[in-house]
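ligand=iron/sulfur cluster
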Amino acid sequence: MQIDINGTICDAFSDQTILQVARKNNIYIPSLCYHNKTGSGGKCRVCMVEVEGTPDLVTSCNVFCKEGMKIRTDTQMVLEAQKVVVDLILSSGKHNCLTCEKNGDCELQEAAYYLGIENPSFHIDNDSYEKDNSSEFISVNREICIACGRCVRGCNYTVVNEVIDYGQRGFQTQIIFDNNKSMGTSSCVQCGECVQLCPVGCLSDKNAKGKGRPWQLKKIESVCTYCGVGCKIHLHIDESKNKIIRITGVEESIVNKGMLCIKGRYGFDFVNSSERLKTPLIKENGTFRETSWEEAISFTVKRFKEIKNQYGADAISGLCSAKVTNEENFAFMKFMRREIGTNNIDHCARLCHSSTVAGLAATLGSGAMTNDIAGIKKADVILIIGSDTSEAHPVIAAHIKQAVRLGKTKLIVIDPKRVKMADYATIYASMKPGTDVALLNCLMQIIITNNWHDMDFINKRTEDFELFKTEVISDQYKPERVSLLSNVPEATLFEIAELFGKAETASVFYAMGITQHHTGTDNVMSLSNLQLLCGNFGKEGGGLNPLRGQSNVQGACDMGGLPDVLSGYQKINDSLVKAKFEKAWGRSLSEKPGLTLMEMIKQADNGLIKSLYIMGENPLLSDPDQNHMISVFKKLDFIVVQDIFMTETAQMAHVVFPAASFAEKTGHFTNTERRVQRLNKAIKSPGLAKPDWQIIQMLANSMGGNWTYDSEKDIWEEITELTPSYSGIKWGRDGIQWPCPSPDHMGTPVLHKDRFTRGLGLFKAIGYKSPAELTDDNYPLILTTGRILQHYHTGTLTRKTEGLNHLAKPMVMISVDDAENLSLSNSEIVKVSSRRGEIELPAFVTRRIQKGVVFIPFHYHEAPANKLTLTELDPISKIPELKVCAVKISKIK
Ligand code: SF4
Ligand code: SF4
Ligand code: SF4
């Protein structure tokens, strides 16, 4: 339809309000309570307009368009009405623009300016409120709150954290946290959504205070460097100080719609940390000395050449990084393959989702998340298994919570811990770690027995169903047996199977709780079986969705940072693929698949690997059995580490290269849903630090490689030339999901729509195997490890932000029953021991974990959980069993 606003004819739809259409057409109507995410407030009444044929003024934020509507936003009556309202609002608070952080970006200020209000006309005596500075990252100044309700709606319906509400009524109306607690002691998770939505300065970023006015800061769009969700961010930069002052979420992003979590919004102090590496370092007599790039590069190349000449190229291995861009990972794998001459390349994906890649490649033909984030709300049922989503992938958790609270979606959560997402679930099952295959086979047995499976889908699109069926309907998986094994009551098994099996569209989300087992690939293939059985592939809101842990772990895999594939998962031993790359790179390549990460460590222990080149990883802290890792690293002849900090791993290196952080780089990350997103350089690197690709190019040229990339764009062009799934994502296209075969293709939100990548979906008959290490009298508890919201990976980045350190410290989560049995009290320091080592840390006694199981976050070097974990590998993907090992807890005398 068309409507007329002030004589301008505007296109409109019947579900659009007058305000939305006016904004789209750049016609300003002052408004305060409306935000496109929180919807029409109709409360502040600032956005009044005249509609022809309507006797009174109407609020434009909640009146929908009708064909031929004639609207005036600029008549005297409209402006005077708006002016009275804004005047009253300004009169009823202690608004002092001179010192307010929001000055220059305040919607109330903008409205007052537009309406020509120089001074408030009225004097309303409101109650005085103390400023609430109890939160680590957010300041609350209730004296300038205009009670617009955007924060209330945002907290409850956007991020669905359900913390803020209105307290009191009438003139005393104010926002409150929980049951009127201070913000810092409430259940607020400090995601900052309310700050981003607040139109005035009532809620503001505490640590940005006094550090720059909005007009003094430059805004650069980039991608969060933490988890695999890939939230789009604006970095607000003080160019004169070369500093990030604040971070906000990009409202237009389809991934995060402006939402961020505490790490993405507030965990950026590491970028400007004084501890950043600034100069290349060479170790001499056990200590590092600073050196020039020339010396560091020529020394490194000399050592690489010596090792290669003496022991062969396969004595050198490389770890690329889930933290650097696609361009840099591509350059790294090209360096290892073309200049060193080995396929010994891997990275931390081996430790998180190699079992996903192996399992789904076998059953579907492609090892990535099948569906997109935007489709979450289309699911009738979502099953979360082995993922603490609100801690590790908070913005995806927000999308799921929205679907549950505001939509039709029902949630099932299966996890050994009662994770926060369980509070939103229709069914929660507390399972014993390591019993996934038995539990899933049991659920599938119930589904088949009750005929809730999708035979039409199975007949048309799958193979080997009968073989699979024979396995899952065997007596071993009868509910009464599996209930005993998994600790999940029989009735709950039936309820889960019924809810999931009968759903029109059901999706599965999982993470390392599924993958990090010696049966990781089996676990993944069992989930694939479940989705094949119920016909949930190829449709919006369905699919199998592994949540990737790091910002560019998907990209590092896509770029060929793996021992057996080049970019786009093209097999190194496929003669056509090899010939294509050899022609493009002008060198012959080895077709012998290289070593995986854990195999590299094993061969280094055996003396066959002599050198490691590590870019942006900290395996000493993130990999299992730390004591063993340290002893192996000591055996290596030559270690090169390229990083932004002197990590535990860098300390063991012979040469250290200082690298640029994500904020100092241009390039691309690929997020967990295969979306390729652009990073833009916002600030300069400290000292002599350089982007990783430039360091790699210097090494390559010193090796005689004759590389001539002038910029990231040159590398990107090579990637799109050589990688079919990326070939249509030309430089300048942002946010496209691969596969994207041509420049006019819009990308692929849902994989396997009409056919699976491998043709037919393959059922696998998977038998249950018990965990590699079982509990006994000496080690009676099961340890499982993972992440917490405030910290990330080995803490190298998040622990540079003081506020995050205040909020979360090392702890072992233990059930009330076990704590009572051991006579432990909350916060008491305890010793946790396994057959491999022991650590000391405080106990956190909680009802959120089941009896017999303990949980330790793996972020802390002072209490490294991986001193305790196992190196037992999944035979297919070589992922270690990080999620189950036997431990004991003892009091410290
Ligand atoms: S920071 Fe997030 S969780 Fe806390 S009150 Fe604001 S919106 Fe709610
Ligand atoms: S704190 Fe801000 S967003 Fe919340 S009601 Fe007050 S003015 Fe509105
Ligand atoms: S959810 Fe992940 S990507 Fe988004 S802000 Fe948080 S850490 Fe960053």
